[in-house]
Design brief:
It is a single chain. This protein is α/β, with parallel strands linked by helices and 385 residues long. The chain has 12 helices and 8 strands. The strands form 2 sheets. A 6-stranded mixed sheet has the order 2-1-3-4-5-8. It has a two-stranded antiparallel sheet with strand order 6-7. It is globular, with a radius of gyration of 21 Å. The protein starts with a helix and ends in a 12-residue tail after the last strand.
Length: 385
């Protein structure tokens, strides 16, 4: 009995500092973020790539926007739910010149973006030319020019953020997945991909420091998800039976993602030391997404490794005929890349991206801070631990 009591006391003492830290954070007022500036890839692209290279075709956007809305999903993304939760409008894409309003922030993310610039064109490798360093250049330029034009008044005043918004905004990052897959698609080995991860992380750190130099003080950084569970990875890359885990995912690719995430977390720890006046929240979306895929039925979903929108194959994914894709039969175009009957119970949308329902589920898990370091909720992300 005495040993049990001692163990209980030790456990309480170990946990007490955590509760104390959380108590200090929760005792503070909610953050009043006037804007969000987002950097990333297709996981948070609200229209960037579509503006540059043509709209993502129907049935993208069908579940919420009732048509294409620049997102590679049937509806909203995690970044949309983040904005909504903070009482802000959905972010306009920086590259979208039609109907955009940047008063409450800007989205610099584009589908296919990487942290490191790629040495291939989009037509060659499928990756966006708007890598993270380019997104930084765009942000820097936007910061300077927006204030120049806003002071002129007129319509600019209602379309551009106030100067103080830049220091009080939430800066969100969701990027890195494509840096890992890029190596594999260039026929690199897993060891070769692992070898360049530190360089990718170093470049990420530099961008965060650059944003800090422009006044950024609150950062919400997502790690990368389980890429080995995505249909386009399992369909396009060679995977031995021994490399498939109990869930059906490709273990080697997930292990590389885990390596990336561990290095990213180390980078965040170092950034906190280098930039002591910043509040940097590291969000473990990998664990959330893997839990969703592993226990899909428990969470109300079906066929977690199969694309909802696609055409043919084990995973309903075809790199040549994707979601919304058509084929020509006897001179007539026929739509074959159709949506599944009920996207609300599907996790994967098109072989690469998540459905609105899955994005909402992921957001619901991370908004409270349960998967964050430090463990603070989204609306408190301006506070340092």
């Amino acid at each position: 009995m005495e040993s049990h009591c001692s163990s209980f006391i030790v456990t309480i003492l170990l946990l007490f500092p955590v509760y104390l830290v959380a108590g200090k954070v929760f005792a503070r007022p909610h953050c009043d973020f006037p804007a969000i500036f987002n950097f990333g890839d297709s996981n948070s692209d609200t229209g960037g790539l579509s503006a540059a290279f043509g709209q993502a075709p129907p049935p993208n956007g069908e579940s919420y926007f009732r048509g294409p809305a620049g997102r590679y999903s049937d509806g909203r993304l995690v970044i949309d739910f983040i904005a909504d939760s903070l009482g802000l409008p959905y972010l306009s894409a920086y590259l979208d010149s039609v109907g955009s309003n940047f008063t409450h922030g800007v989205n610099f993310a584009t589908a296919g973006s990487t942290i490191r610039p790629q040495n291939t064109t989009r037509s060659q490798g499928g990756f966006s030319p708007f890598s993270l360093n380019v997104q930084w250049y765009q942000f820097h330029d936007f910061h300077q020019r927006s204030q120049k034009y806003r002071t002129q008044g007129g319509p600019f005043k209602g379309l551009l953020p106030k100067d103080e918004s830049f220091s009080r905004a939430l800066y969100t990052f969701d990027i890195g997945q494509n840096d890992l897959t890029a190596g594999y698609f260039l026929n690199m080995s897993t060891d070769q991909v692992r070898h360049y991860v530190p360089d990718v992380i170093d470049q990420f750190k530099n961008i965060v420091k650059n944003v800090y130099g422009q006044g950024g003080r609150s950062f919400w950084i997502h790690n990368t998800g389980p890429v080995g569970c995505l249909p386009y990875i399992m369909d396009r890359l060679i995977i031995r039976a021994s490399e498939v885990d109990s869930v059906g995912c490709a273990n080697p690719f997930n292990l590389v993602a885990q390596l990336f995430n561990s290095k990213l977390k180390e980078a965040v720890v170092q950034l906190r030391k280098d930039l002591p006046t910043t509040a940097i929240t590291y969000v473990d979306v990998y664990s959330v997404k893997y839990e969703l895929i592993k226990h899909a039925k428990k969470h109300g979903f079906e066929q977690p490794l199969r694309a909802c929108c696609g055409h043919g194959g084990k995973y309903n994914y075809n790199m040549h005929v994707g979601c919304g894709g058509k084929i020509t039969v006897k001179g007539k175009e026929i739509l074959v890349g159709r949506s599944c009957k009920d996207p609300a119970v599907a996790i994967n949308w098109d072989g690469v991206h998540y459905t609105q329902a899955a994005n909402k589920w992921v957001f619901d898990q991370i908004v409270s801070g349960s998967f964050s370091d430090p463990p603070i909720p989204l609306h408190m992300a301006c506070h340092r631990q």
